[in-house]
Structure formats: structure tokens, C-alpha cells
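User: Sequence recovery, please. Input:
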């Protein structure tokens, strides 16, 4: 397994390098086509002096001659960028504040949202998929499949808005009127994030973020369970007289989780994008809201820096998912 881990690490490093280069090239190309981005710092109502433009260009590393040649990949700039990233410097926003420092402050809240998100996938997605497989062709199976179709067809932003106003405003308002503001349910159903209750007020947004991905996980879990239920090793376990619960959990569930874990790893990429909308609308001071506000304010350095961080984290998580396969199924060998 050691050789496989080294090989996958090398692949991950190469993939990160190519992804960061693509992001760098697209950014450079936009500057080459659209002109000096330093003008965006001053807005459309102020005409900057040449000295002001020069200072801003130097600070944001947009003064290199290659940025005046359309199509130039600016490799020297890219190597300088990698050096800054290696030192933890992911640029500065338009107020000259380090992006990495602001991300570090916001990461805990985003991790809370993703903890609720992954818990929802594990409990609802895997649990409902198992129930649908065990109750195949029964009413509960049809109901679960219909629910996955409906939830999968609803756009993330629409579901987040609907849940925010339905649960946070209407139901939350009724709870606050009848139970008081300090009741646990009243806190959970608040229409926006509260710094005084960071865990309770991320439950609804975390569930909202997870609903779309839960539909695919549920359907895949059902299909995988049905496939393994009919496999030879499960029939052998039943013939040996093992109880139905042990056969289901030890011999069927474990093998059925492999494709589901893969889908969860892939779904995290979509969840990272959905977190921008969810945290922005729910006013959660996380990385998603940081990007949400940066897009609204046209703060390009924040977007580029955070996207670079997200690329690195996503690829490293994908590597971790690959290594989990051998834990879930001992039959898998990497050598």
C-alpha cells in the first residue's frame, strides 16, 4: 500500500499544479484582454493617478510585462505565485488585508456547516437508501424514490431560499412567539446565523446544503444494496445461519458503501459551490460568505485566493477517499 500512497500523492501534486496553473492562466488572460485591473480598486467615480496605479499594480503583482501580451502564460509570475502559496500567502483583498488570515477566521463556521452537511448525507442518504433497498417495491420504497426525484430537481438556491423563509421566518416566528427567543427550537429555526449559538443556527443551512446531494446518495445506496443483497457471499452468510441484522450490516452494508463514499467525495465539490449561496443567504460568517461578498464587491484577489485554497483542499480530500476503500473492503489491494 505504501507504493500506492506515494503514487497517489504524486498524482495529487501534479493535479494541484495543473489546476493552479489553469486558474493562473485564465486570470492572466483576463488581465491581458481587459486591461489593468488596478482601475477596479478605485471604482468608476475616481480617476486614479499613474502613481496610484503603479502602487496598486506592484502590490497585486499585475505590473509584469507579460500581462500586456495576450496569450502569454506568464510562467515567471506563476512560479512566484506558487512560492507565495507555499509560504501561506494567498494574496490581499482590495483593503490590503491578507486573504489567508480572513479565511482562517472563517473556516470554523464553514466546517460546522459541512459537519451538518455530511451528517445529513450519512444519516438521511445512507439510511433512506438502506430502507428503500430492504423494503423494495413497497410503499416506503416508492415514497423515498419519489422524494429523491423531487428534491434532486429543485435548484440549490431555490431550496435554500424556501427553507429560510418557511422554516426560519414562519415556523421560527411561531416558535419564538409561543416558546420564547431562548428556547432551543426557536434558536435552531432562526432565519439567520447567530454568533452566540454557532452550532444550533447552522443546523438548518447545513441540512439545506445537503438536501440536493442526499437524493443521489440515497438512490446510489439503494442500487448498491440491492446488488450486494443478491451476491454469493451474502447468500453464504445466510446459509450459515447468521442473523438478518448481522448479514445486513457486516456483509451487505460495508461493501455497498464503496460507491457511496466515492459519490460523497465528488459531491463535496458541488457542496463547496453551494456553500457560497447558503452562507451568503444565511449570513454565516464562513468562507462561502467571504466569496459571496467578494463577488458582489468585485474583489477579484479574494476569489482567486479562496478558489486556489479550495482546489488544494478538494484534491487532498479526494486522495483520502481513495485510501478509505481498503478500510471499507479488505478485498481491495493497492499493490
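Assistant: Recovered sequence (335 residues):
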Amino acid at each position: 500500500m505504501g507504493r500506492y500512497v506515494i503514487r497517489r500523492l504524486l498524482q495529487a501534486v501534479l493535479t494541484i499544479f495543473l489546476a493552479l496553473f489553469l486558474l493562473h492562466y485564465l486570470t492572466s488572460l483576463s488581465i491581458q484582454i481587459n486591461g489593468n485591473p488596478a482601475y477596479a480598486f478605485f471604482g468608476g467615480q475616481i480617476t486614479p493617478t499613474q502613481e496610484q496605479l503603479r502602487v496598486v499594480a506592484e502590490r497585486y503583482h499585475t505590473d509584469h510585462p507579460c500581462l500586456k501580451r495576450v496569450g502569454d502564460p506568464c510562467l515567471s509570475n506563476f512560479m512566484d505565485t506558487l512560492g507565495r502559496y507555499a509560504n501561506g500567502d494567498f494574496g490581499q483583498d482590495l483593503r490590503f488585508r491578507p486573504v489567508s488570515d480572513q479565511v482562517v477566521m472563517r473556516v470554523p463556521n464553514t466546517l460546522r456547516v459541512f459537519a451538518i452537511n455530511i451528517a445529513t448525507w450519512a444519516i438521511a442518504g445512507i439510511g433512506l437508501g438502506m430502507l428503500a433497498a430492504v423494503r423494495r417495491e413497497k410503499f416506503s420504497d416508492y415514497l423515498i424514490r419519489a422524494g429523491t426525484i423531487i428534491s434532486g430537481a429543485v435548484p440549490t438556491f431555490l431550496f435554500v431560499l424556501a427553507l429560510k423563509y418557511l422554516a426560519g421566518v414562519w415556523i421560527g416566528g411561531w416558535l419564538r412567539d409561543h416558546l420564547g427567543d431562548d428556547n432551543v427550537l426557536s434558536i435552531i429555526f432562526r432565519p439567520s446565523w447567530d454568533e452566540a449559538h454557532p452550532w444550533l443556527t447552522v443546523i438548518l443551512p447545513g441540512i439545506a446544503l445537503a438536501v440536493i446531494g442526499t437524493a443521489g446518495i440515497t438512490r446510489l445506496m439503494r442500487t448498491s444494496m440491492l446488488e450486494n443483497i443478491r451476491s454469493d457471499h451474502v447468500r453464504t452468510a445466510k446459509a450459515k445461519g447468521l442473523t438478518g441484522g448481522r448479514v445486513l450490516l457486516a456483509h451487505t452494508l460495508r461493501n455497498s458503501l464503496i460507491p457511496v463514499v466515492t459519490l460523497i467525495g465528488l459531491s463535496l465539490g458541488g457542496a463547496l459551490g453551494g456553500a457560497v449561496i447558503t452562507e451568503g443567504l444565511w449570513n454565516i460568517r464562513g468562507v462561502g460568505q467571504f466569496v459571496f461578498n467578494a463577488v458582489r464587491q468585485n474583489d477579484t484577489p479574494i476569489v482567486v485566493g479562496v478558489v486556489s485554497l479550495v482546489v488544494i483542499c478538494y484534491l487532498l480530500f479526494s486522495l483520502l477517499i481513495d485510501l478509505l476503500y481498503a478500510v471499507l473492503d479488505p478485498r481491495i489491494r493497492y499493490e
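The chain has two domains: 2-86, 104-328.
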